[in-house]
Every structure is written in structure tokens, then in C-alpha cells.
Write a structure and sequence with these properties.
Layout (H helix, E strand, L loop, with lengths): L2 H43 L5 H26 L14
């Protein structure tokens, strides 16, 4: 691999990592807002949370976890990737 190709690959990885970080931050911000609303509503009204709020929290958490899992799994567990999808071989 030439130096220029390596630099291009690093740039692509940086852009990918930045995109994932930005998406994760947005999802965490959304999740924090949902949990804050749930907490405030419970404290003010002393009632149990409604199903819609709990469902929104679960869907947001599932979506965020799924996106991070797809992005991070090859990094954390390289054996989980298909051979054709692996970028480099030792």
C-alpha cells in the first residue's frame, strides 16, 4: 500500500468515525431528553410513565445500540467479519 493510499484510507476512516460519533451524540441527546422528560413527569405527577414514553426510550436505545454494534463489532471482534469484508490480512 502506497503512502498516498494509506493517507486516503486514514481520511476515510476519520470521516467514518466522525459521522458515527455525530450520529451517536444525536441519539444520546435524544435519549437524555426522553429520560429527563420521564423523570420530571414522574416527580411532578407522582404517576407511572406512559407506554409511549417507555417505547420511545426503548426504540432510541435499540437504534443507537444497533448502529454502534454494526460500526464497532469489526473493530472489537475482527473474527466476526466475513473474510471478504476484512480489509487486511496478516
Amino acid at each position: 500500500m502506497t503512502s498516498q493510499l494509506r493517507e486516503e484510507r486514514v481520511q476515510e476512516l476519520c470521516e467514518s468515525a466522525y459521522g458515527m460519533l455525530k450520529e451517536s451524540h444525536g441519539a444520546l441527546h435524544e435519549l437524555k431528553g426522553l429520560v429527563d422528560r420521564l423523570h420530571t413527569g414522574y416527580l411532578q405527577q407522582q404517576k407511572t410513565p406512559d407506554f409511549d414514553t417507555i417505547s420511545a426510550i426503548k426504540l432510541t436505545t435499540d437504534r443507537m445500540y444497533g448502529e454502534l454494534e454494526r460500526y464497532l463489532r469489526p473493530e472489537c471482534d475482527p473474527d466476526s467479519a466475513y473474510d471478504a469484508a476484512m480489509t487486511e490480512k496478516p
